[in-house]
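> example.struct
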């Protein structure tokens, strides 16, 4: 964090959520994805903060937020709801809500349930109404091994701003749940009235030529085409990247966000003090 970044905590349901705010101007809330922390998004924040008042936070069990007894889609959605409620108490105008990966799915569900609380949605490589589940029965052992290896690798970051406290089994279970969430997400889109922009990777599963990667990349594109048929007003930008685009292509993403967002409707307050002060 830079010297002019405000940091504070949001407490809800026994969980402590670490929040940071940087920059001045129109409020923009950046919701990270699974296995992603505020620290991982620092370059994107730096690129946006000269144009927006950027609010970031860590989901439970990630980064500087506390561990929790439950990790589920609804539990993570509760973290976002708590952060947004804090901003509402500070009388900020409805912010732009930007979500990455799982964070995009959380943003869609939040906007569907709180239509007046979000000015615009920007969804980065997530919230995709896939034509079929990513995790098939045949692929279960491979995915389980992959996330066990990821959890083991993440142990090296324990005690830092990049730590992720979830086990391999918890990551595995969450990805199964995300497949189910995305199978129903078109219903959530139907309840959203604000402008929606998508920033998607062309090779979500990488540019390998094996059949598995080709299927995942094909389904990724077909899911967005399905969304645009249902909601033709959704704007979509494609980046030649894999699912790590929020780190590898931060500059391009920041530029797309600046070029895409509609003019602000009214002057906004500034989040430059701790809640209650």
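> example.seq
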């Amino acid at each position: 964090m830079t010297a002019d970044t405000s940091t504070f905590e949001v407490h809800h349901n026994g969980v402590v959520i670490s929040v940071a705010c940087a920059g001045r101007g129109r409020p923009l809330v950046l919701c990270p994805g699974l296995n992603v922390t505020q620290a991982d998004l620092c370059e994107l924040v730096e690129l946006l903060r000269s144009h927006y008042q950027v609010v970031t936070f860590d989901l439970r069990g990630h980064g500087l937020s506390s561990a929790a007894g439950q990790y589920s889609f609804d539990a993570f959605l509760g973290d976002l709801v708590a952060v947004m409620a804090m901003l509402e108490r500070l009388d900020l105008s409805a912010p732009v809500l930007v979500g990455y990966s799982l964070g995009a799915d959380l943003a869609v569900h939040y906007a569907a349930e709180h239509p007046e609380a979000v000015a615009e949605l920007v969804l980065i490589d997530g919230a995709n109404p896939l034509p079929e589940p990513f995790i098939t029965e045949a692929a279960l052992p491979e995915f389980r091994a992959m996330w066990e290896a990821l959890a083991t690798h993440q142990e090296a970051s324990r005690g830092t701003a990049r730590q992720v406290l979830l086990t391999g089994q918890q990551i595995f279970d969450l990805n199964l749940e995300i497949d189910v969430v995305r199978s129903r997400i078109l219903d959530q889109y139907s309840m959203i009235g604000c402008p929606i922009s998508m920033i998607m990777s062309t090779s979500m599963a990488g540019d390998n030529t094996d059949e598995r990667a080709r299927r995942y990349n094909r389904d990724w594109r077909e899911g967005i085409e399905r969304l645009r048929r249902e909601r033709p007003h959704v704007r979509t930008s494609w980046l030649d990247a894999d699912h790590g685009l929020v780190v590898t292509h931060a500059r391009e993403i920041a530029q797309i966000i600046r070029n895409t967002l509609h003019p602000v409707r009214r002057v906004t307050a500034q989040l430059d003090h701790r809640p209650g002060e």
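> remarks
The CA atoms of residues 19 and 57 lie 4 Å apart.
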